[in-house]
Design goal:
heterodimer; A: 482 residues; Beta Polymerase, domain 2; Cytochrome-c3 Hydrogenase, chain B; 5-stranded mixed β-sheet; 17 helices; 42% helix; globular; B: 242 residues; alpha/beta; 5-stranded parallel β-sheet; 8 helices; 10 strands
């Protein structure tokens, strides 16, 4: 199969994307061992073109190719049995275009048709099912969980999503920044950044360095805020209420600083395509630095106190373990994958120059359990704080304005942008047609890969540990359902 | 244990003492003031801004500040809620005081039944998780909504009303109505955020089913994108003591 090699935040000519076959794709997957980051269809007159985008994390390369299905072809041999990382991608493609991947182990609806969802069944003595949702006990997004248990022990968890589906990809054909940042309200900056970078890649716009820095400062603040909030949520779920209270109020400090920068606690409206809307001046720099210092002090003190408590440690250790082998097979990404021992971080892998300049590895031994995800978040809070301080120092040397003008969007072009949100990589792909109009906009959240990890994590755990496992991942419903 | 006690001491008290008069930083985009002039309504991503006559519909507005100019200024006033959808339309030269006077007018029985205790069931119906995070923040140590007897509960059977966030997707329409029917009478419905009130940024989506909003009586509209915890808590407090 022929491939076009490209980089993150780049565009290629959509008409030059080669066409191959499923068999060729399988052969190449065996040899190249790259990871899928895009696998989506597009109607092309009566044909369907399936775009395949693979990532080579070791070199930061992206490979793009396609497979053409004419209207007579209604099925193909599924990739999932050999390459399980494709399982959700194939379900999505089948749902959208009704071309069946034959021998897919569980070709169930991904976002649509919850009425006819064929749940797994288990029979035997002491066996019972627990159904939860779509409306959960807490104030969270909707989704349905079906636990198959024997006594207290979970045999399998099946997750049915799709309740948040509101046709985002269709709406994004007439995109704007406000819509982009509303796709997933806990990753406002990451989603807005991915969208802005796709448009900037399409139009070959380079935004001022100062704007690049401000975006990255906001991205790291978002990561810090959510990680701290989640440390609190994990503490709350194991009844360590002191942790829940303190992490909760510490998070407030960061998002209130974000409000002072952008007028919104989550950074809505902070930037548009072509630059940023709010500057960080000298006074603000000082303010952010002192807030970060204070936050870091509190987080360290609270976490260290907590980690001395055996009752806390015993709840987290060996709870909800996902082995590295399982995580690799599932194509896990982001924070959860790192906690299982996969060395993957798109900030580093796809060579973001600002991050590379200040990159320091976090000392961390992954074990794939709740403890690892807790510790990794803790380490990442410290890492993000260091990045913010470095980037704030860089602002002094980079006073090249905040915005730049944007060129016209070119016809027949394919562009891709990958941003490491706090959950993991967020991939946006855009394809334009002959009149420079958008003909396909594809979004992949880290949760799309990682939801199945949660299912694997809770196997053989007590059902009472489910909330703890769930919070340690904190996956996105709307990022998956779109 | 001593570490934990020391930690508590080191933290001190973090709650906002006077939540009714709390100030938000001036950068916050809240109540808009519109002066008479010729406006360009095309800058608005949700159609909240109208140029004929000049007005901003807070039910649609995401408070993004795109339209901010000589004639439009977003103040840091955060009490934006109203019991009627019409009152959410802020007209030319309307002041915050004018708005406060007409904003919240509750039914007689509300104060009698709910002013001491109000338990709410939240239904996330297709939102982006932004409003959900802010509603969770209402119960944290800073805002501590529980001190006024207002809480989120796990079951609609325990609730006095429901709080809806999100534009209501087709997939959530049934569950939402089911939840509403499970709440015992008398009950209230609160719409939280631009999405719930008008569809907001997702109003053009074909995957929405907003018949619930037309079918049932809505008691309180709380605008924002997402709703600030102070906006939410004050709205509910004003509503149950009105």
């Amino acid at each position: 199969m022929n491939w076009i090699k490209t980089k993150n935040n780049n565009k290629i000519n959509a008409l030059e994307i080669p066409t191959g076959t499923v068999e060729e794709l399988k052969t190449d997957l065996r040899n190249m061992k790259y990871r899928p980051i895009g696998f989506f269809g597009k109607q092309e007159f009566s044909n369907v073109r399936l775009y395949v985008v693979l990532a080579d994390d070791s070199l930061g390369d992206i490979y793009v190719s396609s497979i053409l299905f004419n209207p007579d072809i209604k099925s193909y041999d599924s990739l999932t049995p050999e390459f399980p990382a494709f399982h959700n991608f194939e379900r999505e493609f089948y749902e959208d275009f009704k071309i069946e991947p034959k021998n897919h182990p569980w070709l169930k609806p991904l976002r649509k048709n919850q009425d006819e969802y064929p749940f797994f069944k288990m029979e035997g003595e002491d066996v019972h099912e627990v159904a939860v949702g779509p409306i959960h006990a807490g104030v969270i997004e909707p989704g349905h969980f079906r636990f198959m248990c024997q006594g207290e022990k979970i045999y399998n968890l099946e997750i049915m999503l799709g309740y948040q589906h509101k046709g985002i990809e269709e709406l994004m054909l007439n995109p704007n920044n406000r819509l982009a940042e509303s796709i997933c309200g806990d990753s406002v900056i990451a989603y807005n950044m991915a969208f802005s970078q796709v448009i900037e890649a399409l139009t070959q716009t380079t935004i001022p360095k100062r704007a690049q820095l401000i975006r990255r400062i906001a991205l790291e603040m978002e990561r810090m805020a959510i990680h701290i909030g989640d440390l609190g949520a994990i503490s709350g779920d194991m009844a360590y209420l002191m942790g829940a209270s303190i992490f909760g109020t510490t998070r407030t400090l960061i998002i209130n600083t974000m409000l002072e920068i952008s007028g919104s606690r989550f950074g809505r409206g902070l930037f548009d395509v072509g630059g940023v809307n709010f500057d960080i001046d000298k006074e603000m720099t000082k303010k952010i630095k002192s807030t970060i210092d204070e936050v870091l002090k509190t987080v360290k003190r609270t976490a260290e106190t907590m980690l001395k408590k055996t009752s806390c440690i015993s709840r987290m250790e060996q709870t909800g373990t996902v082995s590295k082998e399982t995580a690799v097979l599932l194509g896990a990404v982001g924070m959860a994958a790192r906690a299982s021992g996969i060395n993957i971080d798109s900030r580093y892998d796809f060579k973001d120059e600002w991050y590379l300049k200040y990159w320091q590895n976090t000392e961390f031994k992954p074990a794939g359990d709740v403890w690892s995800r807790f510790m990794l978040r803790y380490k990442e809070i410290i890492q993000s704080a260091a990045f913010i301080n470095n980037f704030l120092d860089e602002l002094d040397n980079n006073k090249d304005g905040l915005t730049t003008s944007i060129n016209n969007i070119p016809p027949n072009t394919f562009a891709i942008s990958i941003v490491e949100g706090w959950r993991g990589e967020i991939v946006h792909c855009a394809i334009t047609g002959a009149d420079s109009e958008f003909i396909r906009y594809k979004i992949k959240d880290a949760s799309f890969n990682n939801w199945y990890m949660l299912s694997m994590a809770v196997r053989n755990n007590g059902i009472s540990d489910f909330p703890l496992c769930n919070k340690s991942f904190n996956l996105s419903y709307c990022g998956n359902d779109l | 244990m001593f570490d934990t006690i020391k930690l508590k001491y080191f933290q001190g008290n973090q709650y906002i003492k006077d939540i009714k008069n709390a100030q938000i930083k001036e950068q916050f985009r809240g109540f808009p003031i519109i002066k008479s002039s010729k406006l360009d309504s095309s800058v608005c991503p949700t159609g909240a801004l109208s140029a004929n006559p000049n007005s901003i519909d807070l039910g649609k507005c995401t408070l993004c500040g795109k339209c901010q100019c000589e004639a439009i200024k977003f103040t840091n006033k955060y009490k934006l809620a109203s019991t009627s959808k019409e009152n959410l339309i802020i007209k030319e030269n309307m002041t915050y005081e004018d708005f406060e006077k007409i904003a919240i007018k509750a039914r007689q029985e509300i104060k009698r039944v709910f002013s001491k205790s109000l338990k709410l069931r939240q239904v996330s119906a297709g939102g982006c998780n932004g409003c959900e995070m802010e509603l969770n923040a209402c119960s944290n140590c800073n805002f501590d909504m529980g001190r006024y007897g207002i809480d989120f509960v796990a079951s609609p059977r325990h609730a006095d009303g429901i709080v809806i966030t999100g534009p209501i997707t087709k997939a959530m329409a049934y569950a939402l109505e089911d939840c509403y029917k499970s709440v015992p009478e008398p009950k209230i419905v609160i719409l939280t955020g631009a999405c719930a009130i008008s569809g907001g940024i997702f109003q053009d989506s074909k995957e929405l089913d907003r018949t619930f909003i037309e079918k049932y009586n809505i008691d309180l509209y709380i605008p924002g994108c997402p709703v600030h915890p102070l906006t939410f808590i004050n709205a509910v407090l004003d509503f149950i003591s009105a």
